[in-house]
Design brief:
The complex is a heterodimer of chains A (293) and B (327).
Chain A: E1 32-45, E2 48-54, H1 56-59, E3 67-70, E4 84-87, E5 90-92, E6 97-103, H2 107-112, E7 120-127, E8 139-145, H3 153-161, E9 165-172, H4 181-187, E10 191-196, H5 204-216, E11 221-225, H6 228-241, E12 244-248, E13 283-286
Chain B: E1 11-13, E2 17-19, E3 23-25, E4 47-49, E5 66-69, E6 72-75, H1 84-96, E7 102-106, H2 111-121, E8 129-133, E9 137-138, E10 144-145, H3 150-163, E11 168-172, H4 180-188, E12 193-196, E13 200-202, E14 219-222, H5 227-238, E15 245-248, H6 254-262, E16 267-270, H7 273-276, H8 280-294
The structure holds flavin-adenine dinucleotide, flavin mononucleotide (FMN) and FE2/S2 (inorganic) cluster.
Chain lengths: 293, 327
């Protein structure tokens, strides 16, 4: 995955934690551990799977951009030893369900595909600090690439329900890898632009032009996940227009709960421990004034 | 529930460190205990070994710091922690109210560091014991780890012993040719128990095979992959020391606990597997009690040492069959 992985963002500007309190602080409820029953699980495109879990304690409090840790080892198996972080793609609070969309990339996600209806997956969530919608926001832009879009889909729903105009860009290597477009449309996004590498539409030129056009007409916040290139574009735009940027990062994780310090971002330096993706993030902000590297 | 009859899983370690049962959680894999307190019944655990604690605050290593390996993981966290004073201030009052004993895992770069941390922990409410992580570079000796040299391991143990009345556990590193002289030196220096093992030194290769994966290059291997090594070390150490041994390394199911007991451990710590299965230690407690009932035992202690060679007398010479004779 071409993720905005934490370890690889050394050349990007310094990240800032979202505020702890106030209207632009994310809402965070204590996580629950449960053995979530698989309700639906199946292939939705080559390599891409959709998993619905019965997880009332998570569905009750989850906010857009938060994630869960899924244990992929089954009953008697003692490995993989690490659970896998997965964004919560969508949820049904009343029905007590959460939805995850994932791409098979390695051993853990390959094993995840073997779970079937009725099986129970050890799941811990909701975790991390998610995206924040500013109280006065009227128009937002979502930039997602590949599986990274999965962190953004839920935000579109919450924003649209508040009457915020959502403009979403869905980028991927090829058309089979475009995920999230349906979810955005169902959520009521006013624009869903799908771009791919195979026809060049995902290039910096066309995407930059689209973003600039959107920003000219006034955007309150840009949200990005899944690509350093998209993040760079967002930051350039932020510098030019003063728009705030929130980005969701990825990092290899062990605990997901903020104590093992396995998932540090590598920012900001040697004196102070860098923020943790699982606890301080996965969503970070770039202030409009942040210097661009 | 299998059978009837009460099973007493409790165990008495030296200096009055009483554990309700022999299932502990390993340093670095359970935070300060508070992190899991919402999701696990932590008061049932035998003890909690908290994250490594140093004199001054430490930031972690360059990222990435963790990755999965076959049946295990590599970590190079770098002993990130806020320093002993902050740890005691932040968690001491909470630990004091707990039934479960908290053993503070201590790391340092010099004997003075270790001693000072131990001194500050001594008599601190909520601290039930100290576990020395001696797999740290000794800055005073060119960065050579305390754990790989019997003299250095003995010296740091003795110095800490003088600084505190707390039960003192010393944790062995597997990254040595022969662990037995080191274990003997630690016992002679006054340790109350030995814990074994810490992680095995390893590396992984990064994407594109252009450089090692971990930012720190080297990491510590843990998880079920290391169990045979840990078993061997416990087996060897159990034959040369008389203080209790607590085994660590890839515990994932009751069979692992029973194996470690059989080679002479009096308890085990659950580590890496906790990440995927946080409730495992509590289940192991129940399963161990069930196993005792099944065997008609009212204590698990008869299960300890059953696979060790018979010792002719407690003072008999250490086995000459060991690392040096392996093919
Ligand atoms: C907050 C967050 C949200 C995520 N949301 C999603 C999602 O909604 N859908 C999705 O498909 N993927 C998502 N990912 C990425 C997903 O966690 C990895 O693709 C997955 O862990 C890969 O596991 P594997 O065993 O198949 O791959 P392997 O490469 O075999 O994994 C080896 C080790 O590296 C870790 N790892 C590998 N790639 C990543 C990665 N990109 N991020 C973090 N750890 C990684 C694994 O967890 C494992 O410990 C998210 C990651 C994070 C941090
Ligand atoms: C993420 C992580 C952090 C660790 N931190 C420490 C530490 O601070 N001090 C220490 O003595 N051991 C530390 N360890 C080693 C464990 O306590 C344990 O000895 C080792 O992982 C082997 O047990 P396991 O296979 O059950 O994990 C750490 C292990 C892991 C995986
Ligand atoms: S994964 Fe353990 S601190 Fe983030």
């Amino acid at each position: 995955m071409v993720g905005a992985s934490a370890g690889a963002t050394g050349s990007l500007p310094r990240l800032a934690r979202l505020p702890e309190t106030g209207p632009s602080a994310p809402r965070v409820a204590p996580p629950a551990l449960l053995e979530a029953a698989v309700v639906t699980h199946g292939l939705i495109a080559p390599e891409y799977w959709r998993l619905v879990l019965d997880a009332p304690a998570i569905a009750r409090t989850v906010e857009p951009g938060q994630f869960a840790m899924l244990t992929v080892a089954r009953g008697e198996e003692s490995w993989p030893v690490l659970p896998r972080p997965m964004a919560i793609y969508g949820w049904d609070r009343a029905g007590g369900r959460i939805e995850i969309v994932y791409r098979v990339v390695g051993e853990g996600t390959r094993r995840l595909t073997r779970w079937s209806c009725g099986d129970r997956i050890v799941t811990v969530g909701p975790l991390g600090r998610g995206f924040v919608l500013l109280p006065a926001a009227q128009r937002i832009v979502l930039l997602g690439r590949g599986i990274g879009t999965c962190s953004l889909t839920a935000l579109a729903g919450v924003a649209a329900a508040r009457g915020i105009a959502v403009h979403a860009l869905v980028s991927a290597r090829h058309s089979d890898a475009l995920v999230g477009g349906e979810a955005y449309r169902a959520a009521g996004a006013v624009e869903v632009r799908e771009v791919v590498d195979t026809d060049g539409s995902s290039g910096v030129g066309p995407v930059g032009a689209w973003l600039a056009e959107n920003c000219r007409t006034g955007v309150d916040q840009i949200y990005a996940c899944g690509s350093d290139r998209l993040l760079r574009l967002a930051l350039e735009m932020a510098r030019a227009t003063g728009t705030g940027v929130q980005v969701s990062l990825e990092a290899h994780m062990a605990c997901g709960l903020g104590f093992c310090h396995g998932c540090a971002t590598g920012h900001p330096g040697l004196v102070e421990e860098s923020p943790l993706v699982c606890r301080d993030g996965p969503v970070f902000r770039h202030l409009p004034s942040a210097p661009v590297a | 529930m299998i059978g009837r009859g009460a099973v007493d899983l409790s165990v008495e370690l030296p200096r009055g460190l009483r554990l309700d049962n022999p299932i502990l959680v390993a340093s670095g894999t359970f935070g300060y205990g508070v992190e899991y307190s919402e999701v696990v019944d932590i008061q049932r655990l035998g003890a909690i070994c908290c994250k490594g604690t140093t004199l001054r605050p430490r930031v972690g290593n360059i990222t990435p710091r963790v990755t999965e390996t076959p049946a295990g993981m590599l970590n190079s966290i770098g002993l990130q922690n806020p320093g002993v004073d902050a740890v005691v201030r932040k968690y001491g009052p909470t630990w004091q109210g707990w039934h479960v004993p908290v053993i503070v895992n201590v790391a340092g770069e010099s004997i003075d560091d270790y001693v000072e941390v131990a001194r500050r922990l001594d008599g601190m409410p909520g601290v039930a014991g100290i576990e020395l992580n001696i797999s740290c570079p000794n800055v005073g000796r060119g960065g050579l780890q305390f754990a790989i040299d019997a003299e250095a391991a003995g010296a740091v143990t003795a110095a800490v012993r003088r600084a505190t009345e707390l039960p003192l556990l010393v944790k062995l590193s597997p990254n040595v040719a022969d662990v037995r002289p080191i274990a003997r030196a630690i016992e002679a220096a006054g340790a109350d128990a030995i814990t074994a093992i810490n992680t095995l030194s390893g590396i992984a290769v990064g994407p594109g095979r252009r450089r090692p994966l971990l930012g720190n290059v080297y990491g510590g291997l843990s998880g079920p992959a290391i169990k045979p090594v840990a078993l061997r070390i416990v087996y060897e150490v159990a034959q040369v020391v008389d203080i209790p041994i607590i085994a660590i390394g890839g515990v994932a199911e009751l069979g692992d606990v029973l194996d470690y007991l059989a080679v002479g451990a009096i308890g085990v710590q659950v580590g890496t597997v906790l990440f995927a299965d946080p409730t495992l230690p509590v289940r192991l407690i129940d399963e161990l009690a069930d196993e005792c009932r099944r065997l008609g035992l009212n204590s698990y202690l008869p299960l300890v040492g059953t696979a060790l060679p018979k010792r002719s007398s407690p003072m008999s010479a250490p086995s000459s069959k060991g690392v040096e004779y392996r093919p």
